[in-house]
Write a structure and sequence with these properties.
single chain; about 400 residues; alpha/beta; Rossmann fold; 15 strands; about 40% helix; about 15% strand; globular
Length: about 400
C-alpha cells in the first residue's frame, strides 16, 4: 500500500508528525497548510513546533523527497484531515465549530476518485464524519466507491512520534467496507491494535476519553482549593491517599489546557446538556480553578506591593498548557499571565519553549529569578524541577500551583 500518495490537510501538532511518520514508512506525502510560512519552513526540512524527534523525521523525509508541503491540496489516493475544531462562544454552552473540517473537505473534492480513502483525524462532535459524506455526495462523488472514516489521534504532546506508532487506534467508517479499508491502511504503520467500529461510536469514544480525564482532573483541582482553605498540603494529601490500592488521584494544576481536554467535553455537553451534568460541572470546575489562581496571585501581589511601596514584579514560570512543550492552545497558565496584565499588574514570564510572545514580556531563566518580587510557578517544565532552581527562592515569595517546589 505504501506506493500510494497521501495528502494531509493541516500541518500542525498532529498533521506534521503524521506526515513525517508516513513518509518514513515509504509513502509519498503531500502536506497542505494555508500558512505559507509553515509550508516554506517544512520544505526547507525544518519544523515550526517543538516536539522531540520530529525535526529529524521531517528533515529525513524532505531530503528523501517523500514529503513536500503546499498551500493548496494536490491529487492523492488517501486524504487525511487534521485541521482545528474549536468552538463558538455562544451562550452558556460553547458550540462546536467544524467549519475548518468542512472547508478542508470542500478543498479536496476536485481531486477525489473512485477507491480513494478520506479520513478525518480532527477531534469532532458526533455526526461530523456523516457530514463529510454529505459534502462529498453533493459534489457528485459516489460514496459507494470512496471510503470515508474517522480515526482520532490519541497522542501526548512530547511523545507524539512514539505514540503515533505504538498507541492503539480506533477506526469508524461510514460503511463496514470503509472501516476495513482504512483499518488496513493504519495497520501499515501502527504497531498498536487497530480497533474497528462505526463512525459515530469512534467520534464519541474520542470525546469520552478526554471527558473522563477532565472529570478526574476536576476532582484534583477542586480538592486543591478545599485543602488550601483548610491549611492542608494537597500534594502530601494526594500522595497519602494514593497509597490506597484502589485510589489514583491525579495532580492538581492551574486548570486544563490544550486543544483536546479543554474543548472536547463541550462537544458532548452541547449535544445533550440535560444529561451531561457531571461533564459540564467538571468543565466549569477546571475553568474556575484558573480564576481562583488569578485571584490568589492578586492577593499576594497586592500585599507585596504595599510592603515595597511600588508595584510588585510578577514573574510567571511557564506559559504552555503542559510541561516541556511549546503549545499555548487553551493554556490556563497563559490566561493567568494575560489576565493579570490586563488588570494592571506588572507581569513577565519565563517560558523556555518559546522565543517570544506578543502580549507577555519573556525573560530568560536567570533574569526571571533576578527580577521577581513574586514567583508564580504555573507549569512543571523540567528546567523548573531541578534542586538548583528551587534554591534561588530562599528570600522570594513563591506561589506554586503545579507542585514543582514540592
Amino acid at each position: 500500500m505504501n506506493n500510494k500518495t497521501i495528502c494531509i490537510v493541516g500541518l500542525g501538532y498532529i498533521g506534521l508528525p503524521t506526515a513525517a511518520l508516513l513518509a518514513e514508512n515509504g509513502y509519498n506525502v503531500i502536506g497542505v497548510d494555508i500558512n505559507e510560512h509553515i509550508v516554506q519552513t517544512i520544505n526547507q526540512g525544518n519544523i515550526h513546533i517543538v516536539e522531540p524527534d520530529l525535526d529529524s523525521f521531517v528533515e529525513s523525509a524532505v531530503r528523501a523527497k517523500k514529503l513536500k508541503a503546499y498551500s493548496t491540496p494536490q491529487s492523492g489516493d488517501i486524504y487525511i484531515i487534521c485541521v482545528p475544531t474549536p468552538f463558538h462562544e455562544d451562550g452558556d454552552i460553547p458550540k462546536p465549530n467544524i467549519d475548518y473540517v468542512l472547508n478542508a473537505v470542500n478543498s479536496i473534492t476536485p481531486y477525489i476518485k473512485n477507491g480513494d480513502l478520506v479520513i478525518l483525524e480532527s477531534t469532532s462532535p458526533v455526526g461530523t464524519t456523516q457530514k463529510i459524506g454529505e459534502v462529498l455526495g453533493k459534489a457528485g462523488i459516489d460514496l459507494s466507491k470512496v471510503h470515508v472514516a474517522y480515526c482520532p489521534e490519541r497522542v501526548l504532546p512530547g511523545k507524539i512520534m512514539e505514540e503515533l506508532i505504538y498507541n492503539n487506534r480506533i477506526v469508524g467508517g461510514l460503511t463496514p467496507q470503509a472501516t476495513k479499508e482504512v483499518t488496513s491502511f493504519y495497520k501499515t504503520f501502527v504497531k498498536g491494535e487497530v480497533l474497528e467500529t462505526d463512525a459515530s461510536t469512534a467520534e464519541m469514544c474520542k470525546l469520552t476519553e478526554n471527558s473522563y480525564r477532565d472529570v478526574n482532573i476536576a476532582f484534583a483541582n477542586e480538592l486543591s482549593i478545599i485543602c488550601e482553605n483548610a491549611g492542608i498540603n494537597v500534594w502530601n494529601l494526594i500522595d497519602l491517599a494514593n497509597h490506597h490500592p484502589r485510589v489514583n488521584i491525579l495532580q492538581p494544576g492551574v486548570g486544563v489546557g490544550g486543544h483536546c481536554i479543554a474543548v472536547d467535553p463541550w462537544f458532548i455537553v452541547s449535544k445533550d446538556p440535560e444529561n451531561a451534568r457531571l461533564i459540564r460541572t467538571s468543565r466549569e470546575v477546571n475553568n474556575d480553578k484558573t480564576d481562583w489562581v488569578i485571584n490568589q496571585v492578586k492577593i499576594c501581589a497586592d500585599k507585596i506591593s504595599s510592603k515595597l511601596g511600588r508595584a510588585s514584579q510578577i514573574v510567571c514560570f511557564g506559559l504552555a498548557f503542559k510541561p516541556d512543550i511549546d503549545d499555548l492552545r487553551e493554556s490556563p497558565a497563559l490566561r493567568v499571565a494575560t489576565d493579570l496584565q490586563e488588570q494592571g499588574y506588572k507581569v513577565m514570564a519565563v517560558e523556555p519553549n518559546i522565543q517570544d510572545h506578543d502580549q507577555i514580556k519573556l525573560l530568560n531563566l536567570e533574569d526571571g529569578i533576578k527580577k521577581a518580587d513574586l514567583v508564580v510557578l504555573l507549569v512543571k517544565h523540567k528546567q523548573f524541577c531541578k534542586p538548583s532552581f528551587k534554591q534561588n527562592f530562599q528570600d522570594i515569595k513563591v506561589l506554586d500551583f503545579c507542585g514543582g517546589m514540592d
